[in-house]
């Protein structure tokens, strides 16, 4: 699914109105019914509800929801911003409510807000592209101080600018949940913006799909149907060779577990064969814990000193648990400089590269880098905000023809053509030791199965998150450990095979 900016969404509205031969009111009514249908499941029937409405169409949505909730027997208190210029559909919605139900407010006003209410925030949506005036803080503070049981935002938390970096001092309503129309808004996917809403839920309001090709974008939100489009079909004549031979290089004394996790993930993802390359101390651990894998060992007991020949392998991951012994570091750099085939580069291999000047020139093209935030910072330096971080990474990805995976709640895959794919699967339980090792094994396995680096990364990140989502149906997120993720890759595949 494409992620488009606010201006494009407005064009999309207009094109939908034209192609479907409907009015803007009809579209708003669709939004209102979808919203109401969902909101009623969020609120207890007797809960007091306060709906804050602005003067544009976001406010129009809020007024429409108020009307629908009243029809269903809910008691609502409606606050609407006093203004000279309401949008047409906003006014029409006001007229459908009796005038004594509407409380008009000014920014400097003390409002009488009952405590413990459900608040519906319909003041601003995608119509703003610059920060709200500081006076808005008084309204948002009063909302917060009224101790609401929950705050539900329509389309965006009011004051949130979807396509530009937010600064902490910009006035903005902070909500528990945001129902956003049709497509995710870019800023909602950035970790730095998690303070504005705990979660967003997409509401399909039937914007015309046939015209969405017209919108150019570098950003995508990856869901099941996107993944199904490029999943390879398996032939009954397939054999071990078809599914590739994956090599996992890493481990050091005390950190062999990370190689067990990576290798297990590669096997569960479907590699035909998996071989590990570790220091000698890894041999017994691997042969005992993962009998399906084959082990090669370095001459050294505690850390890798000589890196292997990799030509016979179709997928290679390097760096997990590798440590940063000076000999390992020096020999890794000498080795990587001479490699031609794409690698999945993780953990200490990234830390080692970060110590080199112009490190990206040493990496074979089409490789996949999987840094967590600290590793990314070591590689690319500081960033001001998540927009800048993404831009920096995008430039490097294009210039050096690499794929970067920036891990987070919405993990982002930045490919060598400058596109960013945000992942929709995964949960907080997956923030656990070894989760990243598992991801590297999945991606190396997929490259071994013939997916290119971008496809393997997008699919890998999705599968990893999905396996984690199935895992937390059986295991509490607190108790989820990395090896559980691999145990549920099979469930993830079944889900992708299915059409529900
Ligand atoms: N396809 C859809 O997504 C649909 C969206 N709907 C809803 O409509 C809003 C967008 O409506 P719009 O009228 O364009 O904008 P807003 O209501 O967000 O606000 C406009 C209002 O605010 C004023 N304004 C702009 N910037 C500022 C500022 N910095 N400070 C103060 N005031 C500002 C501006 O002048 C306008 O008066 C969308 O989010 C959805 O909720 C439809 O209902 C269905 C289709
Ligand atoms: K809003």
Automatic annotation (TrEMBL):
Belongs to the NnrE/AIBP family. GO terms for molecular function: ADP-dependent NAD(P)H-hydrate dehydratase activity; ATP binding; metal ion binding; NAD(P)HX epimerase activity. Gene3D superfamilies: 3.40.1190.20, YjeF N-terminal domain. Its EC number is 4.2.1.136, 5.1.99.6. It holds the Pfam family YjeF_N. InterPro entries: Carbohydrate_kinase_pred_CS, CARKD, Nnr, Ribokinase-like, YjeF_N_dom, YjeF_N_dom_sf. Homotetramer. K(+) binds at residues 58, 121, 158. It comes from Empedobacter tilapiae. This is Bifunctional NAD(P)H-hydrate repair enzyme. AMP binds at residues 407-411, 436. It catalyses: (6R)-NADPHX = (6S)-NADPHX; (6S)-NADPHX + ADP = AMP + phosphate + NADPH + H(+); (6R)-NADHX = (6S)-NADHX; (6S)-NADHX + ADP = AMP + phosphate + NADH + H(+). Residues 223-496 form the YjeF C-terminal domain. Residues 9-213 form the YjeF N-terminal domain. Its cofactor is Mg(2+); K(+). Bifunctional enzyme that catalyzes the epimerization of the S- and R-forms of NAD(P)HX and the dehydration of the S-form of NAD(P)HX at the expense of ADP, which is converted to AMP. This allows the repair of both epimers of NAD(P)HX, a damaged form of NAD(P)H that is a result of enzymatic or heat-dependent hydration. Binds 1 potassium ion per subunit. (6S)-NADPHX binds at residues 57-61, 125-131, 155, 321, 372, 437. GO terms for biological process: metabolite repair; nicotinamide nucleotide metabolic process. It comes from the Bacteria. Keywords: ATP-binding, Isomerase, Lyase, Metal-binding, Multifunctional enzyme, NAD, NADP, Nucleotide-binding, Potassium.
